Amino acid sequence: MKLNQPDAGDTQFADLVPLPPSPGAPDVPLYLFAFPDFGLLDVKLPVGFVDQSWFKDTCPSFGLPDPDPSAEWPQLTVYIDYADKEKRQEPGGHRFYVYAGGSMDEAACASDDWGVAAAYIAAHRKPS
Fold it and tell me: What does the domain layout of the chain look like in residue ranges?
């Protein structure tokens, strides 16, 4: 899965930042601002994972913040691609990609089965 990284000089979408819901509006998850056609999440995220979706990525992402607040990357990040394979950026790509530690170059776990991704997360998360 190719992750889109921001370019320092990229200002094309600088003014298109998802806004929080207005007061009194229903609580809308960040991933639905970034990916309005994604639909509701159909898996139960592990405890502690937070929505860190960004509209320039290919799909929603959720991370487990590192216990060390000065760490550059979350200890675990899961990208959840579209259930509809036709909407995925890469033909034949998996639905779930888990990245561990500081490496966002290659997924530590990739599967179409949430159970496999969730088991990897459970086995590799650091105690907080």
Answer: 30-124
